[in-house]
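Our collaborator T.R. sent over the components below with a one-line note: 'Predict the complex.' Nothing else. No constraints on interfaces, no templates requested, no preferences about which chain binds where. So this is a plain run: every listed entity goes in together, and whatever single assembly comes back becomes the starting point for the next discussion.
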Amino acid sequence: MKKTSADVLPGLSEGGAPGDHPLLAVDNLHVEFQTRAGVVRAVNGVSYTVGPGETLAVLGESGSGKSVTAQAIMGILDMPPAVIPKGEIRFKGTNLLKLSEEARTQVRGQRIAMIFQDALSALNPVFTVGWQISEMFRVHRGMSKADGLKKAIELMDRVRIPAARQRVHDYPHQFSGGMRQRIMIAMSIALDPEVLIADEPTTALDVTVQAQIMELLAELQRESRMGLILITHDLGVVADVADKIAVMYAGRIVENAPVHDIYKGPAHPYTKGLLESIPRVDLKGHELYAIKGLPPNLLDLPTGCAFHPRCPYRQDNCVTDAPPLHEVSGTRNSACHYWREVLDGEHQ
Amino acid sequence: MSNPTPPVGTGLPDTQTLVTEPTQAPERGGKKAKDGKPASLWTDAWYDLRRRPMFIISVIIIFVLLVMSFWPSLFTSIDPFNARSCDLSTARQGPSPGHLFGRDNLGCDLYSRTIYGARNSIIIGVFTTIVTTLVGSLLGIVAGYRGGAVDAVSSRFTEIFFAIPAILGALLIAATFRGKANSILLVIVALGVLGWPMTYRIMRAAVITAKSQDFVVAARALGAGAGRIMFRHLLPNSLAPVIVVATINLGGFIAAEAALSFLGVGVLSPDISWGLMIADARNRFLEAPLPLVFPAAFLCVTVLAFIMMGDAVRDALDPKLR
Amino acid sequence: MASTSERILEVRDLVKHFPLTQGIVVKRQIGAIKAVDGVSFDLHKGETLGIVGESGCGKSTLAKVLMALERPTSGSVKINGRDIAHAKGGELKRMRRNIQMVMQDPYTSLNPRMTVGDIIGEPYEIHTEVAPKGDRRTKVQELLEVVGLNPDHINRYPHQFSGGQRQRIGIARGLALQPEIIVCDEPVSALDVSIQAQVINLLERLQNEFDLAYIFIAHDLSVVRHISDRVGVMYLGKFVELGKDTEIYDRPAHPYTQALLSAVPVPDPDGREQRERIILQGDPPSPANPPSGCRFRTRCWKAQEICAEEEPLLQIRPGTAHESACHFAETHDVVHVG
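Returned assembly:
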């Protein structure tokens, strides 16, 4: 008899009491990589929560730690070199980091699923897409080949792949980029996960296809009330779909807020800089504001606030004291000593 | 805008580019800038090599071997070509004072023979490697860069050579021209003619990979000619695997020479080579292992020294590994 | 402004087909990928022409043909009246001094085994008449300074720089021969958001300083709008619309342009529910076998019989002030809410 996830995770069954606990909570997570050159501090105390049907956008540039956090949630970090010295990842109250590998496998893919940027390399080129989608059912649900294939066709219909019945026997390279991303999405939602992590799902795609995929994700989320963590660097995509945003810089969350608040008035100089530095399709701007300098070296983070070498609001204490996550309002925080000045739009 | 500390990427398990400091470049770059001497791949590689212990050790070993090849009398006072230095009654004697390695099957001094054998073995090994590497690389780079018909023709031509069993072919060449040329030269030609296709294949594959990169397109857009693209851009980026194969081949050629000698067409008695010595000593190996062990050990050290040097050169030619 | 200044690039009926062949020994053509299929435009001194389109629309092939890296199947690319597409040998080499490019990927566009000094100095080694040997090092250091890098870093290797800095090195190499035209093929799409702005500002500053004309090819419509004076929209090897930036972005007339623009996410959540979104169905058809008549008709909501029979030409149509290639062209603002 195959164990279901409910057996391994007591209290995690569908009928549990999610009201007491957020669906998924990352709490003070730290991730380090031991390398020859030294310890790379990729994630330095990240906390966020996602509820059912909610979309959290994690915004950051390369090296900000946004993808590493997601990989830690999924439990797909290579350890070593990665180490998680501190922090908790709670799924409906259960700390995933404390679970056995076997129990973790039951969560991964079934309760929390993930889609990646590069759908072509995430799919195995030598198996048909039908085989790969139905594998989810064969492995986790013990279905027969024929039943699995039937489910695969259903799923391909659900993610709007035209002529699913014929195309189920095609290989990944026979699909366009957008269709491959749909196949990835089909695989990720196959077992009705409660949380879906999408890591730059549309970065490799053209705008018109990006629009199709984002619409599909929003629709699937409405149907199933999944919690969606959208990892991206695209401020436009975030504005389009997110309920709330966590902005990451140098492995920390520098600002989190409901989506409308952040675009109206950012409370952290980094967020503000990002918003001012992007060209817009609806406005012809003048010279773009450019955040000066370069992203920080994770082997040797700046003292105090990691953003201080690039910050126009910098004061002496920014160099020495790391700012805590100040409460700006009931629903938003900013890790800046001078968040009031930033919010008021006072330039130094 | 500008930043005083430019970062470099490190290869981490994380898919993102993490940013780290350059480890040793600043002081070096600074020093060179003061010298006013522009750096290039080759000068930087040389600068780097001089600091690699592995390179220094291998160069010392190779230097000693070369001295041994050209002035063997510096190492031994016995002349192995003098028939009087051998004494059949002392055949297979163990080491003794004056005869450090003992004596071989014919009662000749093993030490002096090993020293004198270095010349032929090293000349054959080094020159065959040079010939095969030059021919193979040159053809490979042209075929890889030009592609199309040039590539198709040269690749089919190479396959013909691949199809000939190396020792059999060499045997044929060496036997056909035997007596018409110097036997050492004959061995080099025989092994060289059949040895280059491997280098060709490797160079061609590396060039095809390098060719598709944007910096080659950028060079073409600047108006760079074929020569510049092949030798400034493609060659330095395709050299690493060729160097590795060349140094490994070197040992193979010395061993192949032994096989030819054994078949009676390579270096022949009374000439001496390690290959010949190993071949001679094989029959009596169980009763007298030393006549085989010593030349074989010299052969191993030689090959190892060249492989070490090849490794060091390959690493020095990759700026990312410095 | 743009139209009054000197015309330096004239592209006429440019076609580039890549033959599809079968057989190894005797090659037989079985078709062709029509990557660029009849493109015409002008570029004036100091102007930026943006070219947008999705992957496979032929914009990168167009860049290669403009740079004379590929020979066109037919058509001409005239720089100051002389056709680079059919130039050869010394003449071609001389003409290259006037048109240079900045490439997309800062990681593969610089030779990893050359120092920055060698990379930026290579143009002078190829075109020895531009700078005497003794001056080259100084020139390279000046260029490093112009693009905002430390001139002392001349002996470093590309891997010692970040992506944005490498892109500056690539720009310095493009500037070395003082060309009048620079073709930028997705120059910022591989960079982080905060670095993108730095590089875009640099390109704009250099344009003013050296009176450069840019062909700016990108898939990011926001970036193209920011930097361009005029914009051409490409679909399956052809321009479907060509006009001033305000004409294309505020009054697009071609349905494809409208769909493309409406799909661009605007970084402003207010009114996201009201924004008009035209979601195109399916993928673009294969450039090896484009639809008859109008190439966009298979995904177009306005398509009629005429669209399959008659190819709409790129021309000024009633009710619009700029060229578009649609039988039913009609301006319609899709980016602004309300």
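Summary for T.R.: The beta strands of chain B are 8-9, 19-20.
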